Amino acid sequence: MKSILIISQHIFPKQTPRAHRATELAIEFSKKGYDVTVYAVLGEYDYSDFMKNNKITVKDIGLKWQHKTYSSDFKIKRALIDKVLGRLFQRFFEFPDIEFYYKIPKLINKEPPFNTLISIANPHSVHWGCAKAKKKFPEKFPKKWIADCGDPYYSNGNSDKFKERFKKMEQFFCKSTDFITVPIESAIENYFAEYKEKIKVIPQGFNFQVSEKIKLKPINKIPTFAYCGNFFIGYRDPTIFFEFLLKTKFNFKFIIYTDHTSLIAKYLPLLKEKIEIRPTIFRKDMIKEIKNMDFLVNIENINLPGQLPSKLIDYAISNRPILSINISNFKSENIIEFLNGNYQNRLAVDNLEDYRIEEVTNKFIDLINS
After folding, report:
1. How many CB atoms lie within 10 A of CB 192?
2. What confidence score (pLDDT) does residue 306 get?
3. What is residue 211's predicted lDDT score, i.e. its pLDDT?
4. Between the CA of residue 107 and those of 95, 117, 127, what are the distances in Å?
């Protein structure tokens, strides 16, 4: 039986794009008859049923440098000491993620040789650790290595200057891997030119069914819309959108699924009952809930051409219209149209079938067999 080793910081039940990538690939590879082992930072979640039901072996990477590791379970993350050390050493040493560079070679050396390795970033130190393992233990290293990158590291829009310190490390992994996979075509330009022939585009994969056509009429008495995910200063900043909502005379209900409200905290008491914060939930549950919204809000990433938010696929699966907001080219008239139930300028997610996990896994298999 062909064996595959997947190394990722997070897997199920963590609700992040990279956790979904690792989990969905592992499950689908197992369905296709592969012997799959996954290494991740697990935490305290019990994987007994998950392994039994999906015929997958799950093992803990076992990080030691953090007081409380950023794991895949539901526990509260990051103790105060971890936050302090992160602020002190992250920009100089990529702390705490740099531990993957030292830990992964030991994991690979103690395992029997696998046919294929799929390493998943972020963080990119996962790839760096695999490159170190290949150099240090070539006889134990898998025959084929695919390095999957959700976001570029070294060159990505307005990259931090400190990343120059790790340029050689990034080049080291690019030189060592057989293939680099990225989710969208525009991400390729953010990688070193000398390794671009290794780069293949394989989109994020999802297990889904879309059985109904999109409904382009409001389904609630007052405009009800939702946003899923976090906000970030500088490239996914919702300030201008919230300022508009404060001034508009429309009645509405805005539901936000997020675990981080710092950027919007000042607007919550001002908007009162018009806004509702809900905690992040499992993808499948979230898709069921957002099907009951009139429309969904996407805040476009600014200066990050190598990224496509995976929530757009979830939005498309839900079959609800998408209002996409560009904060550098803000158009209030588009928002007014949606609040009036006119969705003609909705964002279209093209080629949705390309994101089916069955097709995505087949693309990886093509690379494995090439």
Report:
1. 16
2. 47
3. 57
4. 20, 12, 13
Q: Classify 197 as helix, strand or coil.
A: helix
Q: Is the dihedral of CA 358, 359, 364, 370 positive or negative?
A: positive
Other Cβ atoms less than 10 A from the Cβ of 143: the count is: 11
Given a contact cutoff of 8 angstroms between Cβ atoms, the answer to whether 107 and 81 are in contact is no
Do residues 120 and 21 lie in contact, with contact meaning Cβ atoms separated by under 8 Å? yes
Please state the pTM of the whole predicted model. Answer: 0.82
Instruction: Find the largest Cα–Cα distance for the chain.
Output: 68
Rounded CA gap, 204 and 355, in Å? Answer: 6
Is the pLDDT assigned to residue 42 strictly greater than 80? yes
Alpha carbon dihedral 7, 37, 198, 203, in 10-degree steps, equals -80
Give residue-wise pLDDT tens across range 310-342: 788 899 989 999 999 988 889 899 999 999 999
List C-alpha distances in Å: 242 to 57, 245, 271, 300: 45, 5, 9, 15
Chain centroid to CA 167? 23
- 330 C-beta neighbours (distance < 10 Å), count: 13
Least confident of 71-75, 79-83, 221-225, 280-284: 79-83
C-alpha of 214 from chain center:
25
* pLDDT in the model for residue 230: 85
Indicate if the alpha-carbon torsion angle 263, 264, 267, 268 is positive or negative: negative
Cis peptide before 13 (omega within 30 of 0): yes
Cα angle for residues 94, 283, 349 (degrees, 5° grid)? 90
Cα–Cα distance, 322 to 317 (Å, whole number): 11
CB–CB of 319/295 below 8 Å?
no
Q: How far apart are CA 365 and CA 118, in angstroms?
A: 11
Q: For the chain, report the end-to-end CA distance as a whole number of angstroms.
A: 18
Compute and round to an integer the Cα radius of gyration of the chain: 21
Q: How far apart are CA 294 and CA 223, in angstroms?
A: 6
Strands 322-325, 295-299: pairing is parallel
